[in-house]
Structure formats: C-alpha cells, structure tokens
Amino acid sequence: MNAQGEPGMLERAVEATLFAAEEPMTVEALAAHLGGIEPSEVREALALLGQHYAARGVHLVERGKRWHFETAPDLAHLLRREKEQVRRLSRAATEVLAIIAYHEPVSRAEIESIRGVQTSAGTLDVLMEAGWIRLAGRREVPGRPVIYATTPEFLDHFGLESRRDLPGIDELRAAGLLDPVDEAMEAAMRFDPDDPDEDDEEGSDAP
Amino acid sequence: MNAQGEPGMLERAVEATLFAAEEPMTVEALAAHLGGIEPSEVREALALLGQHYAARGVHLVERGKRWHFETAPDLAHLLRREKEQVRRLSRAATEVLAIIAYHEPVSRAEIESIRGVQTSAGTLDVLMEAGWIRLAGRREVPGRPVIYATTPEFLDHFGLESRRDLPGIDELRAAGLLDPVDEAMEAAMRFDPDDPDEDDEEGSDAP
Amino acid sequence: MLADAGAGSTDAALVQGAQAGDEALYLELDGWEGPLDLLLDLARRQKVDLRQISILALVDQYLTYIERAGAMRLELAADYLVMAAWLAYLKSALLLPKEEQEDPSPEELALRLQLRLQRLGAMREAAARLMGRDRIGRDVFLRGAPEGLRTDRKTVWRSDMFALIQAYGQVKARTAPRIYHVANRPVMTLDSALERVSAMLGVTLEWMEIRDFLPPHAEPALRRSALASSFVAALELARRGRAELAQDGAFAPLRIRRLKEGATA
Question: CB–CB of B57 and A16 under 8 A?
Fold first, then answer.
C-alpha cells in the first residue's frame, strides 16, 4: 500500500484470495495459488493487509500459520443477535406460578396435588426461563424432591413488594375469584380447563 | 471514514455484517440487523464503504437493491478454480433467459414467438432451478398464461445493479426491438403504407 | 432454382460463400434452434445489417441449404420443411406482378420475417453479452467462508397480577370440596292431581275448564306444576274412558267433563 492508500496488485490479489477462500490459507498455499511467487512477497502483502484492516470492521488474522479474515472482536456481537419475542404465559403455567407463589417452597408433587392435574416439566422450565421461579433446595422427605420458590424478578414483574402483598383467600372470595360459577363459565367459554393436555403446550416431556 | 482513513463505527459495523452475511442484504435488513438504525445512515455508510473498497481486491456491490462484497473482476484470472462453478447453459436456455430478462414479464408463447420454436419444459426448469427466473403470476388474457420474470439472484449472478443495466437494453428499446412484431409492423405500415419501392429496396443490392 | 430467382451476383456470391462453409454448417444441423434460427444464421452470412438483408437472397440460401440437406439424406424436422415451403411461396409472390397480390402483400410478409429475424438477432446478441458479464463463481467470487449472521429468538414472558390471582382462585375453586344440594321446589304430583281431577269431575256433568281444577291461591311455581300434572291427569282419565276433553283451537282453554257411565261401552 502506498502513501495514498492505493493497494498494490499483489496486496489486492492476496486480499481477494483470502476473501474467497473456503479455509484459512498458509503463506505457501497463497504463494502457490498466486502463480508460484516468493513466500516473502506474500508475507509482505499480508503485513500491509494486516495494517490496513486493523482499524476496520474485519480483521486479517493468523491462526496456526494460516491466514483468514474475520469479524473484528469488538463487533462479534453483530454475528449473533438476540431478538426478543413477548409471549403471554399460558393458563397452566400461570396456575403453577400462582401455586408456587402462595405455597412456596413447594415440590412438584405438591403443586400437582393442589392443581389436581399433572404438571409437565416444560411448564416449570418456562417459569424458570422467565426468571420467576428458582430451585429452593430439596424437601427432606423420602425421594428428596426438588422444591421451588419465587424470585425477586417475580415480585418485580407483578408489582409486589413482597409475597405478603398477594391477596388472601378471603379477599379472593370477596372478589368472586373463588366462585365456582366462574369456573363453570370458564369451562363453557373455553376448552376443558382441567384438561391435563393443556400442560403440553409448554413442553413435550409431559408424563 | 475520516481524512486519516479511520472508518466510523457504523461503517465498520456495516462492513462486518456484510462480510459475515451468507446472503446479500438490503439496506432495510442491514438497518434492522444493526439494531433498528435509520436506513439513511446505512446508505451513508455503504457509500463510504463503496468508495473505500473501490481500489481494493474486494468490491462492495449493489445487485437488485441488495448489497454484498465480491472479489474485484480484474482478479478473475487469479481466482478461477480448477473446476468451474458456473453451470453451462445450453444455447436455448441462454436465449430464453435473455428474452425473459429483456421483456419481463413474458409468457412462454411470447418467448416462442420470438424464437420461432417451441421451448422445451426442461429449458425453463433449468433456469428456475438456477434461481434466475420465477413465476410472476398470470397474464390476464384468454387462457391466463403463466408469465415469467427474473429474480434478484439473476441480477446478482450477472453483476447487474438492476434490469436497467442489462447490456444494450436502452438501445434495443429505442430501436423498437423489444416491441412485438405486430406493433412494429403497424408502425412500419403507418410510416410508409404500401411503399411501392419497398420491394426494390429488398433487392437493391442487385446490379 | 437459383437461376430462376434472378438474384444478383452479390447474392449468388453469398450463397456460394455459404456453400463453401457447408461442411461445418451441415454438421451443426442438430444445433439449430428451429428454422428461424437457421434463417438468422444465413442472414448473418450476408454480412450486412439485418435491416438491409435481401429477403430474396435469404430465401434462396435457405432453400439451397434444405435441398443439399435432402441430397445428403439428412433427416430434417418437419418445421424446417414447412418453412422451406412457405419461403418458396413468399419468393414466388415477391416475383409476381403487383396487381395479382393478395392481402397481406408479400412485401408485408417479407417485412414481418425481417422484423422477426431482427428481434431474434437482438436477443441472441443480448444473450451473448449477458453471458460475457463478470459472473459470480466464474469471474467474481463471494466470501468463501462467511461467518453467517444468526438471530436468536429470546422469549420474554409476560403475565399480570390479575391473571395470577385469578388462576389461583380457579385452582382453589376447582379443588375445594363441594356440597351439592337440591332445592325443595313446590310440586303437585301426578297422583294427587289424578285424585283432585277425579274428585272434581264427580261434582258435575258439565264442561269445566281445566284451569278451574287448579288450587286457587297457589304460588306461581306450584301453579305451573299443578297445571302440568292436571293436564296429564286429564289425559289419563280420558284414556281410562272416564272423561272427555275438548279444545276450540290451539292455546284455547282446555275443557273437560265426565263421561256418562256406559257411554264408552
């Protein structure tokens, strides 16, 4: 590369060859590919290229005597982007979360006995992924089942100072939320709410 | 890029993204990938990059509104592989492709009226398989024939920024050579209706 | 045929030239993309702009070509022969005196052929120029090993307080022990209605409205039950031949009276 930044022919040739190459190339392979020129000339061209690309979004790098272009390390995040997708918690997962919140710490068997239906592992996975529940050790009973509890993120998301802010049973009743008619309505309005298959929507590893 | 040749952050990000991308990208796709920045900013960065790479062994090119890097054409002789990667097209396929590109959208009957010969189904299949032509709906005339048009991959492969870059298309259009024969006939008859000298003109080179 | 055509020496020379290169020409026979393609190639041999070609000379070239192919016993596809016949017709029409010409005139047919050749020629050139461009994979190359861009979808879960406590309420409601009770509703049984209606029938032989059999001060629920039971009782008594029923029309008052003894016998 001269002072004006115009690259020489060999530099351009090495640049294009490495760009198009499917695998990193050694100096010798480059020299052979470019018609049997001297490896020292290739090394010179590589040095110029390395300088030129040092400030750019792509770098020329040597790994184990092989050369290739790769994304500048500070831009590596561009290669893998995360796209957020907001989804509403399913009814099954909401029920499990509510039971954990009201009864924590609680084992899966206990959740199931309260819900009256089996709970798929997928449901608990979703709640873990959401960051709302955590493993809270094991219950010291035969089988030592894992027990679950809510997290500070749970309180955060639901706008609670603490779990004590959750409405009590009496308040729920007063709000009509324990009214069996609601359930009958629910049943009429949608599919069977007791349907154990509903849990499957979270994951496939249903019992 | 500033006077010292140091590229700005966005220019570097666009550079890295296009280097890493497996497919050409539109300005909008780039803007979205870079976290929802303004397309105009991306366009600016592309302009700077285009300038920067113009002298190098790799060029930034726009094909059908999609951008990608490719090796400089003048280095072709250094990069040609032992085995040519480009599929060999039959003469029929080549002509059909040209007719579709210069006349699109165009029906099979229209292609055949230009070539004066039936087009085997295989010819269109080959072009479709190469990804260079696509079905572009149906012509709203009796029989509703399928019509064909070229794809962005076609522009890509033949190094065309858009169909306006098709070699000689302006001259062909100006000469009326892209108009159907019937139209050209009408035009010719209008200019010299029953020109009695026309016959002589045919044989004018006879002594 | 060549002599009859009266073509000028230039044309004759061109035909001659075409014949000189015949070997290659005939070997390519399978390579033609139809008769128009062959015509275009022959026209090109005139080495003039397609707008200035001599159609008559072209016709002769084509016919000569076909003749020679025939002489060499090469099998020609039907459309080449059809074109030859048409061109022979065109040539004779072009040479006919003007007044005998039909519509469309042979000049028009010749012009149309010329226009078609121009268009095919234009596309053939365009195709060649297209194929000669810098093509990806032949002249220019894409990045050999792009890292690839990946977009990972991350799910952000959303819920709210109401959904939470509603869900809990439903769990509790669903699993709470339930007490079922059946409301004690006032009803008149069929037996007591039968008894009442039979008793009242004994009072008179006249027609009576069934409505009159109902308990006079009963609450609405009991009245509805009594009406239904009394109606069924009336039907039962009619079946036993102890009463007859009458109604003047739909929804009209239903009347009942005792059947005299022996009337049914």
Answer: yes
Are domains B9-77 and B91-190 of this chain identical in fold? yes
Say which CATH architecture domain B9-77 belongs to: Orthogonal Bundle (1.10)
What is the ipTM for the molecules in this complex? 0.69
Domain boundaries, chain B: 9-77, 91-190
pLDDT tens for B84-102 read 567 788 888 999 999 999 9
> Residues A143-154: pLDDT tens digits?
899 999 999 999
Between CA C191 and CA C180 the distance in angstroms is 28
Residues 6+ apart with CB under 8 A from B89: B97, B126, C131
Q: What domains can be seen in chain C, in order of their start residue?
A: 35-132 (no CATH), 190-258 (1.10.10.580)
Shortest distance between the Cα of C52 and any Cα of chain B, in A, equals 7
Tens digits of residue pLDDT in B50-83 = 999 999 999 999 999 999 999 999 998 888 764 4
Using the Cβ of A54 and the Cβ atoms of chain B, whether some distance falls under 8 Å is answered with: no
CA B118 to chain C, closest CA, distance in angstroms equals 8
Cα torsion A114, A117, A120, A122: sign? negative
In A, residues 17-36, which contact B (CB 8 Å cutoff)?
17, 19-20, 33-35
CATH number for the region B91-190 comes to: 1.10.10.10
Pairing outcome for strands A146-150 and C243-247: unpaired
